[in-house]
Amino acid sequence: MKKIAFVIKFFQDSNFHGGGEKLFFKLIERFIKNKYTVDIYCSDSNVSSYPGINKIIVVDKPYDHVNPVIMEDFYEEVKNLVKKQDYDCVISENITPPIGITFLQGHSLVHRQRKLKSSLEAFWYKFRPEKKYRIEYQEKWMKQGYKKIFTVSNVLKNDIMENFNIPESNIKVVYPGVEIPENIPAVKAYNNNDVITFGLSAPGFKIKGGYILLKALKILKNRNYNFKAKIIYPKAKKNLGIKLLIKLYGIEKNVEFIEFQKNMQDFYESIDCVVMPSYEDTFNLVALESMANKKLCVISSNCGASEIIQDGENGFTFNMNNPVRNLAEKLMFIIDNKNLINIIAEKGFSTAQNFSWDNTFDNFIELLVPEANPYCY
After folding, report:
1. Is residue 135 domain-shared with residue 51, that is, in the same domain?
2. Percent of the residues in the chain that have a pLDDT greater than 90, as a whole number
3. What is d(CA 241, CA 248) in angstroms, rounded to the nearest whole number?
């Protein structure tokens, strides 16, 4: 198997806006490195060519993931184009019209309806015309079937199995990878008077657990804990509700909102602990990257990355059955036990070293190659 096609929304070689974009780029890089012929079919690209890629084809059809009809038109055009080629495998992203193998990075809409909403919210979510419409199409595409489904975590695998009745044998988990920085700053020696800085990357503030963190920090403030928090949230200046909230919580001097970070290394170096209290996160590369930078990681049980963390050993996880209280307890424990930060962070670093992008590629290929002609319409 030596000729591969990828079908993605947007191809870019830097400044990734999400873990999914980075995952596909890192896989493409390694297909090239291993002498595969690689073609890209996309709706847009920030480059017209890339070293090692055979062709980047910008499809002359619109791509809009919230409009299933537009998506079907886009994928129908791709099918017509790839029919003329002799690909061993066609790999697409997320729940889209089936064209071969799919690698999922995002939860289904049914999962969001059933798992992440209150009963009232779930009712309105299900019957909002645009959501109901998209759910129906996702169910349709799943029934049409992919040759094989890959997911970035068991959290996402369980979503697909439970909500679409897909056999477990047809879904494989391949965890994302991480680069270990060449020059990690020397670890800080903590003393009892040091102020711990927590960090959160929350471009989607609610879904990434931004409000959970603020409420947990309120508990810390009420109990006279001293702390800092840096939150990546580019829209903070325009969000008057959040400004009012942190003032009501009395934490306006503790919390700093910062813009989108082109270089996340600077962010990791400026904090002591990454906190990811996500309501929904199929993996969360920020968690793994923080571990690769020898930073302590606190992550919710809803995150796929919680599957590689043993609570209190190489990081911390907290249960989302009472997220604010549970998170606050973890943060207070960290402040009260600063002597454990480097010990646990070092174990997290050892874990990150086992999750290279080369290992991700090898795992993917090992699970992909046994399939005879894994391309399908």
Report:
1. yes
2. 81
3. 10
